[in-house]
Write a structure and sequence with these properties.
Strand order of the largest sheet: 2-3-1-4
GO molecular function: sequence-specific DNA binding
Protein name: Leucine-responsive regulatory protein
Largest sheet: 4 strands, antiparallel
CATH architecture of the largest domain: 2-Layer Sandwich
Keywords: Activator, DNA-binding, Transcription, Transcription regulation
Number of domains: 2
CATH topology of the largest domain: Alpha-Beta Plaits
Number of strands: 4
Pfam families: AsnC_trans_reg, HTH_24
CATH class of the largest domain: Alpha Beta
Strand content: 15-25%
Order of helices and strands: HHHEHEEHE
Radius of gyration: 20 Å
InterPro entries: ArsR-like_HTH, AsnC-type_HTH_dom, Dimeric_a/b-barrel, Tscrpt_reg_AsnC-like, Tscrpt_reg_AsnC/Lrp_C, Tscrpt_reg_HTH_AsnC-type_CS, WH-like_DNA-bd_sf, WH_DNA-bd_sf
CATH superfamily of the largest domain: Lrp/AsnC effector binding domain/regulation of amino acid metabolism (RAM) domain
Length: 148
């Protein structure tokens, strides 16, 4: 699959809004019959455009609604150091997102914990101990504004 047409873009848009949408509903909304619609979804999955499906969790109900964004500055940014950090950060379950940034710091993390005390423990015992971490700076979320 080299280029996406309007049907493919619409499928991606609809599935991003509702990953549990049935093929029948999807085909009705994009104007294709079920079989061609299903084949397009399967091709999008196989080609890697759709990486997976997941549930959106209400974190307030499961007691991990404390969010912090953390800037990480490394003491080494050569490829081996970046690869070591990238591998190690995947082992910290509290890190919900990790992005390498072009800025005066190297990574921006989204960290989700139960409360400030548990965040402080994650920062001190896990994040700060990752390979090549020189320093960090934390921004605590006061309110999450849901946009979708």
């Amino acid at each position: 699959m080299t280029t996406l047409d309007n049907f493919d873009h619409r499928i991606l848009e609809l599935l991003q809004s509702d990953g549990r949408m049935t093929i029948t509903d999807l085909s009705d909304q994009i104007g294709l019959s079920k079989t061609p619609c299903l084949k397009r979804v399967q091709k999008l999955e196989t080609a890697g455009y759709i990486k997976g499906y997941q549930a959106i969790i209400n974190h307030a109900l499961i007691d991990n609604n404390h969010i912090a964004f953390v800037q990480i500055k490394l003491n080494d940014t050569k490829t081996m150091a970046l690869n070591a950090f990238n591998k190690a950060i995947k082992e910290v379950p509290e890190v919900e997102q990790c992005h390498m940034i072009a800025s005066n710091f190297d990574y921006l993390l989204k960290v989700r914990t139960e409360n400030m005390e548990s965040y402080r423990q994650v920062l001190g015992e896990k994040i700060s101990a990752l390979p090549h971490v020189q320093n960090s700076s934390t921004f605590v979320v006061m309110e999450e504004v849901v946009t979708s």
